[in-house]
Amino acid sequence: MELTLDKVGQVVGAETWLRGIDLALQPGAVTVLLGVTQAGKTSLMRIMAGLDVPSTGAVRVDGRDVTGTPVRERNVSMVYQQFINYPSFKVFDNIASPLKLRGERDIAAKVKALAERLHIAAFLDRYPSELSGGQQQRVALARALAKGAPLMLLDEPLVNLDYKLREGLREELSQLFAAGDSTVVYATTEPAEALLLGGYTAVMERGELLQYGPTAEVFHTPRSLRVARAFSDPPMNLLAGEAFGGRLQLPGGLSLPLPAALATVGGTLTLGVRASALRTESQPGDLGLDGRVELTEISGSDTYVHVATGAGPMVAQFTGVHHFALGDALTLYLHPVQVYLFDADGALLSAPERISRS
């Protein structure tokens, strides 16, 4: 199924929720809508589904204008943040409901197969209220998959689950989507979720579509500072500097060479460094930023260290559990090929080389 949005805008009262969005979804693939709360993700999905009509622009499915066609006349399945199931139906009947509506055969076998894929086969004879939040969301996902709709929309479906449940379901969802034929749209505020799901990513901010393309491409080559900020967790380290004579001069006396293609560029530039590109041990060609530890956070299997340096505040991300005391002297190392450079308007000038560094 090919779904295309042509200059779609949405105005509600005095507020503009969507701003002239042009987007052609990749058929049969996963597209992640990535952006903070109120970026416009839910508004866009409701228009895709036919729940809302855009104020301007058109929605086309396989070239046919379906703008204004209500959701009941479209073949769409949706999964929401809340665990929406039929409370008076047992799990089996929740999953079977779209199959029954279509008059399919071998319903029991199909329900059992879906339940096994989502690890809820043991609960088919229970009611949703007897299940945990994660199990209820699995039921909602199974019912959406059972519908077999060409367009499947998921609006932050894991946000109300605890960390451990989210991690497990994320991995399972990427496999489930890959095994299906539906065009999937998945909204999230989490860059890590977009990277795990892969496919394509549309970065949104304040109702604007900033960039759309293969997820890895958007992550590694953000077109602007706005995209880089949205697609980075923890936030990308940003330092303002002055370019002249083929070098970028940063506060604190740190200087690094500009790429050859930017040797004649002058004026104010912004240097961006992802937290994962910083190290505590130097390698050939590295630059060092001396500083002091202001905060250490351990999240999952990673350690995040906030360091005050002469060039500005930095956050480094290290795999594993590391211990740094408040006020410890710490030098962070980076290589010039691992930095982003943005011009005074925030447009990307140079991205890191895609190389592996241990």
The helical percent reads 10-25%
How far apart lie the N and C ends? Answer: 42 Å
Mean pLDDT equals 92
Q: Which range does the strand content fall in? A: 25-35%
The CATH homology group name of the largest domain: P-loop containing nucleotide triphosphate hydrolases
Order of helices and strands: EEEHEEEHHHEHEHEEHHEEEEEEEEEE
What is the number of helices?
Answer: 8
Q: CATH topology of the largest domain, what is it called?
A: Rossmann fold
Oligomer: single chain
CATH C-level category of the largest domain: Alpha Beta
Record the strand order, biggest sheet: 6-7-8-3-9-10
Number of beta-strand segments: 20
Provide the CATH architecture of the largest domain: 3-Layer(aba) Sandwich
Q: Which radius of gyration do the C-alpha atoms yield?
A: 24 Å
Q: What composes the largest sheet?
A: 6 strands, mixed
The stretches of 5 or more residues where confidence is low (pLDDT under 50) are none
Integer count of domains: 2
